[in-house]
Amino acid sequence: MSRLTDANVAIAYEIIGRYPRPKSALIPILHLAQEQDGYVAQDSMKHIAELVGVTPAEVFGTASFYEMFKFEPVGKYLLNICGTLSCALMGSEELMHHAEKRLGIKAGSTTPDGLITLEHAECQAACTEAPCLQVNYRYRFKMTPAELDTLIDDLAGGKLADEIPSHGVLAMVRQHIPAERGVGAVAPEEVNESPEWLNGKSAL
Amino acid sequence: MSTTESTSDQVETEVVIDPNAVSLTINGKTVAARKGELIIAAADRTSDFIPRFCYHPRMKPVGMCRQCLVEVEGPRGPMMVVSCMTPVAEGQVVHTETEQVKKAQEGILELLLANHPLDCPVCDKGGECPLQDQAFSHGPGESRYVEEKRHYEKPIAISDLVFLDRERCILCDRCTRFASEVAGDPLISFTHRGNNTQILTFPDEPFASYFSGNTVQICPVGALTAKPYRFKARPWDLEETQSTCTACSVGCATVIQSSRDQVLRFQGHDNDEVNWGWLCDRGRFNFESINSEDRFTTPLVKEGTSLVPTSWSSALETAARTIRLAVSSKGANSVAILGGARLANEDARAWAMLASKLGITLHDAQLDDGLPTEVFNLPQATINDATSATTVILLSPDLKEELPVLYLRLRDAATKNRTRIIEFTTRASGLTRYAWKSLNYEPGTQVAAVNSALNDTEIAGQLSKGNVVVVLGRANLAESSDFTAQAYNAIAAAFPAATVLPVLRRGNIRGAATAGLTAGNNARSILTAASEGHIECLILLGADPLSDVPDLDLARRALAGAHNIIAVDTFPTASTLRADVVLPAAAYAERGGTTTNLEGRVLPLSQKITARGTSRPDWMIATELAEQLGADIGVESIDDLTAIDAPSQTLQVLSVAGSSAPERNSYDLRLVVSRKMYDNAVSTVTSPSLAHLSIGAGIYLNPRDIERIGALVGKDVKVSTSSKSVILTLHADESVLKGTAWVPFNQPGTDIRELMNANDLIVDVRVENLS
Amino acid sequence: MTSTYAHAPGFVAGDRPKIVTSRFEFADSYTIERYLATNGYAGLRAALSQPAASVHDEVKNATVLGRGGAGFPAGTKWGLTPQEVWPRYLVVNGDESEPGTYKDRLLMERDPHQLIEGCLIACYAAGLSRCFLYIRGEMALAQERVATALNEAYAAGFIGKNILGTKFSVDIVLHWGAGAYVVGEETALIESLEGNRGMPRLKPPFFPAANGLYGQPTIVNNVETLANLPWLLCNGSEAFTAIGTKTSPGTRMVAVSGHVKRPGVFEIINGVTTFRDLLYGEEFCGGIRNDNKLKAFVPGGGSAPWFTPDQLDLPFEASQVGPAGSMLGSGAIMVMDETTDIPAAALTLTRFYAHESCGKCTPCREGGTWLERILTRVVEGTGTDADLDQLIEVGSSICPGDFPHASNADLGLAAVPFPYKMTTICFVGPSAYAPIHSALTLFRSEFEARVTTRKRIPVTAGHAL
Ligand SMILES: Cc1cc2nc3c(=O)[nH]c(=O)nc-3n(C[C@H](O)[C@H](O)[C@H](O)COP(=O)(O)O)c2cc1C
Ligand code: SF4
Ligand code: FES
Q1: Which pTM does this prediction carry?
Q2: What domains lie within chain A, and their CATH numbers?
Q3: In the structure, what pLDDT confidence band is assigned to residue C204 with cuts at 50, 70 and 90?
Q4: What's the alpha-carbon Rg for chain B, to the nearest Å?
Q5: Which of B435, B445, B542, C239 is the most buried (most CB within 10 A)?
Q6: Residue A15, H or E segment
């Protein structure tokens, strides 16, 4: 239940600055909020609404459209097992059954210790490596039930902490446009000239 | 050209081909249309109805319900397209009733009904429901959906006035589009996705829009219902008639719906010049006041200290006696009439005729809270002129609060980039977000602000680009209206071609002015005369000086000083309680006639129900009083009052006193007092659904001033002038100009008018912590 | 000889011309050092030493077909922007989510600079002054690799103000999605990029090239489409069209998944390679697993109507696959062998599209879920005969008229060519029906057996074989 920290507000402003219209920064900043709290808290949606100049209803309207945003706390690790055709053909259903048994929970819920939330996912763009899964959006390919057991043990034992950040942290590298290099975002109505390089000559 | 006799040869050469005319065929019939028009709109002019849910002619089409699919012949055979998003084209061949189209329409209706609860018998919309009607006319006849339907918590209140039943919702995007596109209050949104899509507000952030009721009207099912109407009636029991809203002077077209002689609902009606079908919530829901128990139902006369019921004949006799005595003893100048803006044109005329017959020259339909009615004599603009002008200058109150649907129209013009708004204001108004320039001024410095804007090359350039319309009204009740007049004159001097849209807000102020009820002396001199004991008889025509006159002390002294008071009114008010005679007037919807909106447009008022008790229309009261007084005004029926008012002379500029505001002491704050949509207005207070929506009394300062003062937000502070003080709760408001203080007018709680003096050019106050 | 690179999971190199995967053999292919050492940014230099219009001509001459699904030539699309309307934008579609599709992620993870260079060339040629690179939310590694590459390229002066000292200036802004398949549709992508719910816009009246992001002319191109440009500019359109066929020049990336011996992502020769080559060829998948019989395959992503062995000899050529009753789509083949439980397989796809409906169109929002429910009932063995007809009925509310399908000799079926009529805005609605229609048309007896036997057979019954 928190607003964005000052450090994150600074990042948010940097992100907003890249778009000709502030609202475009909505999804990246929602990710930032989720990175901060592990989920998107109500207060942060209100804060984001202020930052990008829309109403909280609009923020929630957009946020709730996208599956990755969670509005309640989830486990430290989100385990997404793909169930679309290619993975299903290669045994993802059995993998899911195994995961449910091993974790003692049904898909869509979180282990009592708050470590793992198990979810049924749709195609993860790794179809040739079926069955596949993601832990906090880090892939594991051609998973067997035994490998799944090891993975769960490793997560519980903290062995993968370096490789897999806790839920909410997506990319660990951010884009940064150096001020002296960036062209800068301009509202479309303020542009009415053709780009300089379209002068019929070669640029180099 | 049609006037010249011509041979057929000549005719051919004279045919003007309209470049925007398009001709297409719909189901084999030729239809004339305009370029850019949508197929569905063109089809609406034929007898072939295309079913639809998401399409609304006043909003951008989204093409999402898919119900309006038709076939258009193309190079590769017939194409299925949605007619609500496909523009007409020359020679286009459209089919709306082929097998293919019917199949698609039936299929989609079946799908829409799949998750619909079909609780029509207990649904407000049942009987007037587009889903029900179109399921009947274009549906499959039966549903094969045997699965469990979607379930949501039954109706949830999304605001004070509107309930949402998500199970009934067919997700047409009308309410949400209205909220963001038309009202500019995007507080409801689609949430979630796919089959779980629903409409919701953000938790704890209700759909608090002044226009929320429109969503109920345009919802094509019973998903949105209005609290004041829920379970009140079945549509087939409703009778209706078209009329005009008089809650303010915009003049929105309404439909009055009643059942068993009781008004149950107002709906918006689409008038292209005025309201485009929209109403504000005050105008829509204040029908409740007609049904209020508080109303006067019978004439009253004072006996001792209380008002007691009496018969019309005795009340009229008492009133006539009072007037006759006053005129005969102290002359016609000892009788004054205040009010008249609540009346229909015909009523106002009858009263004006009576006044002139008796030689009464003291009358004013405003209560010292507007501008001189000379503004109606300036070169006039219509609402459509304003919304199509290149530039609109706002020298006006916050239109969103006072003339809400005019705000919608101007907002539309600005957001669609037709019009640029230059606003002069003391704090953020509803239109500030949409204004091209919003220029702040401290009360009293309007002329300087205008002059510096006119000297700005960018602004001057914009103003020279095309038509300029000045929206002119009273922005601040705590300053002399002379400053606004001066500011206007400065604009008129620089841009003589500029026209004026006068925004005096009282319902029929323009009709009363045209009828002659404002000609003569103004309210302030009448009140002053009364307070000095010079008024023998004060007639209040639907006027409540004790609530509305900015100088409260003057109003009090005037009502105490008037020797006799005759009140013609519908409701008891602070002022009518002081009356010696009360003549109950019929309410809105209980009398017919016409009203004149702020543009001067004469619009119909319809009677739908019989008047409560023995109350009568104002014109009849005037006529009967005239009869009692032996002053025949020649009126037998309302038809005798439909005469056209004489055109008035045109002015180029307003007369001004040339006042200039004193310097403000830097410890003081200059006071701005203006209205909110919901206040203690009698029609609001007597409408239970609206009564509790007022924000309440309070004082709003810029946070930097609050810091300087060292006061605490949310706490009471002492607000004082050199002579008086009041206690008000302090609020912070970034948009209040530093050095000024804003106080909403006529709110429940402490009355700021204690500090206001009619003769002060401005009011400077000091704000301090309570010791 | 076929080789698989461990650092590029799924990718099978093979001994074929490589346009977009040439660097995949290097473990460090994603670094700027490797990129520069392997002719990196030479295509950009080549472009900048010509007038923009001639770069545009070069791309037009090469007929670079869009790789996102619709196969529209990139050069032609760029030419559809209205004259003299500024600014105009490039939006890169890296939202890869179509079931079976797996190529854009590899291109972003393994060779981000190639994509960046492609973006720059497109911006230069079409006068696009700002580029938004939209990457699917769930692809953390791709986001990191592209972010790193962008930071490197900014530092090296390849992006931003006055690129390589010229007047050409463009920013590339990295943007991630947050989990919604439909956002891959170009107008939904634009909505999403504007911070809205990713609901497609109806087109016509407006196509993005005329009225897209913020109402400005906008080019939306797929990652793979753009990744072709550096090579094209270095080698010229003649070299490009020398590979593949006249109507489908160059190469394309194809992912083959499911019941084949060696599933993988291949860069194949456009218009020439056939499905049989891919499924059975030794340099490709090497046949069906366990040498089982092929039952059916999805030729172009989950939305595509299915093929059976009858269609194996069709090449990767849109003008042949369309009349045969399906589409090439996004280059994704999903193979089902004889052990596959067809109704259950169809259900996984219908469930996908029902789940991914944006909710805008009634037929998709309501119909997709309805289809899923009926089919679930059938698969679970509680369905009735009437349910099978009802599937077709609901489907025809989404797609009225004949739905495309392949010919089948055994069933005596003649092909119904692609595309279909639809009552929805985008293809998600019809896609929920496509697998059902294919499965029911080609394998109706399996459904009938299901409604009478009422027995549950797991999808992967064959997996254990
Ligand atoms: C439902 C739907 C999903 C789509 N998903 C993607 C996608 O994930 N990636 C993609 O590049 N194109 C996708 N497309 C195609 C895009 O709309 C668009 O045609 C493409 O990005 C254009 O790029 P291209 O011309 O370079 O192929 C999708 C289309 C539809 C209708
Ligand atoms: S077909 Fe489905 S996903 Fe596509 S726009 Fe319509 S509702 Fe959305
Ligand atoms: S009315 Fe046209 S799609 Fe809804």
Answers
A1: 0.94
A2: 6-71 (1.10.10.1590), 77-156 (3.40.30.10)
A3: confident
A4: 29
A5: B542
A6: helix A6-16
